Amino acid sequence: MAVLSRRSALLLAGSALFLPPTAARAHHGWGGYQADNPRELTGVIEGMSFDWPHAEMLLRTEERLWEVVLAPPSRTRSRGLTEEVAVVGVEATVMGYPHRSREEEIRVEWVAVAGTTYRMR
Question: pTM of the predicted model, to two decimals?
Answer without folding.
Answer: 0.75
